[in-house]
Design a protein that fits this description.
The protein is α+β, with helices and mostly antiparallel strands. It is built from 22 helices and 13 strands.
Length: 582
């Protein structure tokens, strides 16, 4: 096996699929000329080796990182000059990632985590820009047209540890880019759901497509902290061939969801597609089939599937966009996006970073309600994780931020749900909590957190079956991703309070597999295992809980928990039997 320490350069053509769809032959010709006249000569100039073409990009290796960086800068500057005069729709731009690692070298290819890291870094680069680890960026000397932007720790897909990275870009760093607003303005993405196409359908049966669109809009409305829906914006558009980029510009949206319907006898097939409006790039496609008799169930299933599939994709796409922006262009929305992942990692260092980002969001725009909502949630999690040095002060902070969010939008389902949880979990005022959370469900019946947090209150009130129902609904509405662990945990707790210890343990283990650092879930898992007569397994998790929260004591927890009466005493006894200290 031939292993070598090399600098790896991975490049990707921005919007390659769109360019090929627009004019395949012209794109191929321009890309071939760019490779022949710019890329390969620059690689040779800096002593590099062109490893292979990836169709929409290339991989090259260099013996030193200085050569790799210098070549990347030269390629991007030459590519920019080469693209001058071309229209925005025809311009070929590259994103480049650079890394240094010990890799496996074969004729025509290289392998290893180091190559994967370079490829993942590339995805965070601005069009025409470069992203590289911070230690490599320090090798780049000052240059008048090269602008640095510290990206902090980037969590890279399928890479165990985050990478501290820096973005290099060229030209005017404050220049607005397509799909971005001016600094200090609202940047939440708009998504338009167009009428679904059903060729040959009788005019009196348009309820098929309109019902599906209504259900999807209704479901997406629950993601208020991320999406701003353009309700019915697509009505009246031509239902034939659609120019996604033209429609996107016309409606002023960043994403477009559309679809088609086919009926055959008693069966129906529904296709959905999500596009990025500025480029027309397809981000997601799906197909569902069923019987006409099951139409309403099918509509709901499609709506939930759309939410579950789209939310993580769009959230990550928006987060990547925010990470690539120069600091001067960041808005409250961008800071909030950057805070969400560290908020839910349940790691003390990441958690502290999330607080700083939320503070920046509020400072950037004090009227931005979601930043206050998640700040309230931050204080809630701080108490629940056992990290609070002053639970009373955190309770006051949580209440203050939740009130501020509702003051900015009294119909914000997320804000109402979190404020209800402050009353339920921290203040033990279950009557007020239930009232706030019922309002949250009225305002946002598709808001996953409204259902999940109201389940907690219902459980504390002793309504076990209702707690299970609400937790199941919240999980069903929750987009799959790292945040789903909390919904799984609350379903576990609901089953525990309803006396279903088998189900409680099953869902707690499932949540534990997604994130083993959520201490409230570990406690529920321990009590469930003891109730099932599995003391050894419970003791193993109790030992793990003490590593996560060394200061945990049953006496303090018993005073803090809102669990009622005999449920609390039984819960404490089961934790004690697993070996947790008084």
């Amino acid at each position: 096996m031939n292993r070598q320490q090399l600098a790896i350069v991975v490049a990707d053509v921005v919007g390659y699929s769109r360019l090929m769809q627009t004019d395949e032959e012209a794109t191929y010709t321009r890309l071939s000329a760019l490779r022949r006249e710019v890329i390969e000569p620059e690689i040779a100039t800096y002593g590099g080796h062109f490893v292979k073409s990836t169709g929409d990009g290339f991989i090259a290796t260099f013996s030193t990182p200085q050569d790799a960086i210098s070549c990347s800068l030269a390629v991007q500057q030459a590519s920019s000059r080469d693209a001058q005069g071309a229209s925005a729709a025809e311009r070929i731009q590259l994103r480049i990632g650079v890394n240094v690692a010990d890799v496996i070298v074969e004729p025509g290819d290289v392998y290893g985590d180091g190559v994967n890291i370079a490829a993942r870094l590339q995805s965070f680069a601005l069009p025409g820009g470069i992203v590289l680890p911070r230690e490599l960026a320090e090798m780049v000397g000052p240059a008048p047209d090269v602008h640095r932007h510290d990206l902090g720790e980037l969590p890279l897909r399928n890479i165990r540890r985050p990478v501290e990275a820096v973005s290099l870009s060229f030209g005017d760093p404050s220049e607005r880019r397509l799909g971005e607003d001016a600094p200090g303005t609202e940047q939440r993405p708009f998504i338009a759901v167009l009428p679904f196409v059903e060729h040959g359908a009788p005019a009196d049966q348009s309820y098929f497509s309109s019902g599906i669109v209504d259900d999807i809009i209704h479901a997406l409305a629950g993601l208020k902290e991320l999406f701003v829906l353009s309700r019915g914006a697509g009505i009246g558009l031509d239902s034939g061939e659609r120019d996604i980029r033209r429609i996107g510009a016309q409606l002023g949206v960043r994403y477009i969801l559309h679809g088609s319907i086919q009926r055959s006898g008693k069966r129906i097939r529904i296709r959905t597609e999500l596009n990025e409006a500025a480029t027309g790039v397809v981000l997601y496609t799906d197909q569902q089939e069923g019987l006409l008799d099951e139409l309403f169930d099918l509509q709901s299933r499609i709506a939930l599937r759309v939410v579950g599939a789209l939310a993580p994709q769009i959230r990550e796409r928006e987060r990547s966009r925010a990470l690539r922006q120069p600091p001067a262009n960041l808005t409250a929305y961008d800071y909030l996006l950057q805070a969400l992942d560290p908020l839910f990692q349940m790691d003390p260092t990441a958690f502290a970073r999330a607080k700083g980002l939320l503070q920046r969001a509020i400072a950037s725009d004090p009227e931005y309600g979601p930043a206050h909502s998640y700040s309230a949630y931050w204080h809630l999690l701080r108490v629940g994780q056992g990290w609070s040095q002053d639970p009373r002060a955190d309770t006051a902070e949580a209440a203050e931020h939740a009130e501020a969010a509702i003051a900015r939008d009294e119909t914000d389902a997320l804000a109402l749900a979190i404020y209800g949880h402050v009353h339920s979990y921290l203040l033990k005022d279950f009557e007020t909590a239930a009232e706030l959370q019922d309002r949250a469900l009225e305002c946002g019946p598709s808001c996953a957190m409204a259902w999940t947090l109201s389940s907690v209150t219902q459980g504390y009130l002793g309504f076990g079956p209702e707690a299970v129902f609400r937790a199941k609904t919240g999980l069903k509405l929750s987009p799959r991703g790292p945040h789903v662990v909390y919904h799984e945990h609350i379903l576990s707790q609901a089953h525990y309070l309803n006396g279903n210890y088998d189900e409680a343990a099953r869902w707690a283990l499932r949540a534990n597999n997604h994130n083993g650092r959520l201490t409230s879930n570990v406690r529920c898992l321990i009590a469930s295992l003891v109730a099932l007569g599995l003391p050894d397994e419970a003791s193993a998790h109790a030992a793990r809980l003490l590593k996560l929260d060394p200061a945990f004591r049953l006496s303090a927890f018993g005073h803090q928990t809102p669990l009622p009466g005999t449920i609390r005493s039984d819960f404490l006894d089961r934790l004690r039997r697993a070996g947790l200290p008084d």
